[in-house]
Amino acid sequence: MVTDGNGGLSLLEQYGERDLCQVTGLLNMMQFMRHASAHLQDVLADPLTFMYFDIENFKSFNQRYGFQQGNRLLRYVADLLRETFEGNLVARFNDDHFAVATHSENPADCIQFIHERIRVYDLGLPMEVKAGIYHPPEDVTDVALIMDRAKIACNSIKNTYDLTWAEFDPAMEEEINFRSHIIRSFQEAMIEGYIEVFYQPEIRTMTREICGFEALARWRDPVHGMISPGVFVPVLEDAHLSPQLDLYIIERVCQDISRIRRELPSWELLRVSVNLSRADFRLMDMVQAVEDVRLRYDIARSLLNVEVTEGAQSDDEKFLQGEIARFRAAGYEVWMDDFGSGYSSLNNVKDYVFDVLKIDMNFLRSFDTNPKSAIVIRSIVNMAKELGLHTLAEGVETEAQFEFLREIGCEKVQGYLFSPPMPLDKAIAYCHGETAQVKVEPLRLGSYYAEIGAINVLSSEAIERRGSPEIGDALSLAVLEEEGGEIRYLYQSRMFKMFLQNIELDQDSVHTPHYERRKRQNERMIARMMEEADRTGREVYTDFITRNSFNSVRLRLVTRDVDDTRAVFLMATVNISRFSPEAGSMQEALNQIVALYDRVDLFDLGSRKLTQLYRDVYEPNYTQEYGHFEELVAHYAEEKILPAEQKLFKKFYSEKHLRAVLEDKAGREEVAVLFYKRMPDDGRMLRLHHLVPFRLEQRDYVISCVQAINENIITAVTAALAEDT
């Protein structure tokens, strides 16, 4: 190669086949470096700009279309480079990597031109080209070093969507040197204990008790100080050293558990979550490797949870699915870590079987400033519950965040609100002994709380239907735990708290008249309902009327603990206030009561007509036209009400009584009465008939709601009330 009269490049030699790339006809890497080196050593030659090109998505292109089409794309790129950098050094280094040495004063414009042509090459698979640019100073003539720096610049913008090229900056090389230090020092760091295990508590939202730890790697380097795991973990993954790191952490965790068993035999052990990189599974049999470590220290599988980084999808999805299945079959819980941090989150949930979904902390970082964050988190928790996954949210820093997560049913949290990651001794002090800041959840209750956590409080059907009747579209929910005769709330939805406020049993009502009496009555009623639900295994329900509202309560057993000393019940309630703003909307009233009743009828006091709003299949459907609604009431009484009660039934539904109820602000008129419905074969069913009066657009209405009543519960409630009089 010689320079032309203008100081440019001119290739005058004839090359043999071994000097050229067999696919593209460009120079190979060795010939490129030889000619570039000769040019740099020519003191009369003009300075060169070096570029390193990388085609992104080329591997996917090959997989979709085959190697023949892949080679065709490489030749297309080679022709583009020849055309754009005519008369300059152009080479294919390897795979989809190309190099250029040019005198061009506008290399960025040339790169953009090539990028635009490659991007439209295949509209079905977006193709991108990235390029690194390096302008070597006069004292740098080592072509290998020059191309390394151009490659460093190119790699600095990989996986970005808005950058096509980058120029080399010395800081990039400092990063490369730091990465090299991490790799060189890794073995020594493990031997000398520079890499430590820190533990961050996992807190159960229902109890605010600690239920586990996550084990996290921390590197105290004698040269660089504390190195963030966000820095050294990706470096070790790229160097295929992540299995060694993860197994080292697991071994340290097992050592710590063994130490605790020896030194603190009375302390309740906690589960520890350990992290495995997806890259680990490609490099060794991680299931067997973890088993070997566990057996060496005689640690139960139930004490170790395996967290797999969410990450991007790879070529070995089927293999990884099988490895996760092996872990679960062996008895480990497998958690998806950092859900939402990658672009394949939903595919991972769809294609893999996990036990727990960990919501990435980035969702909470904008919680206070971006209302959309709460919507997204709520949707994630709801989706997880529908798929049978348990949930844990990372990065919880404020009480507002914690209360929101508890309200939507997220089962566990971790974050600086409770504690940062800390060394073992501080972790023990955090939850054991006189310095303990939290209570410890007994290990044996893990499955018990898992069953409770499976309740989806965001669903219109909070628990699976197993027969009739069931808690259906409940407006408010509470989870209650009974232990030794004591009852406590593990969970209260926002609507349930409003229910307690409406019946004057919330904290703000403590100083109101007769609060203690109301509280005792309510506790006795709930205790008797719990006893009935526990004995029968079915949902039980009751209705009661307070001064200003009608209230319906349903309750069922969820689970018992392994020692049969605790029981958890799910309660659903409805409160309909006679004179609340909600009662002014017919649609709102119907939404609240249709799911509860056998039939619902609307009495229009203006037209004196009756409209059937809802009826179950066992209720008669009146299609015949009637004049005054009292005619239909009389017909219904003769057909369905016991003879001894027919007269009272007609009086209760008379126009005179309905108008009196509508005008009654003092609560003196009867709005709820029990009548027996005649059943086939001389049977009978006790039902509550309840009236809800309201005005809408200056018209007068009364809604009649009819619901079957469990006579056993009525007897129990009556007895409870009698005990307090």
From TrEMBL:
CDD domains: EAL, GGDEF. One of its GO terms (molecular function) is cyclic-guanylate-specific phosphodiesterase activity. Residues 46-170 form the GGDEF domain. Residues 179-435 form the EAL domain. PROSITE patterns: EAL, GGDEF. It holds the Pfam family GGDEF. SMART domains: EAL, GGDEF. This is Bifunctional diguanylate cyclase/phosphodiesterase. It comes from Selenomonas timonae.
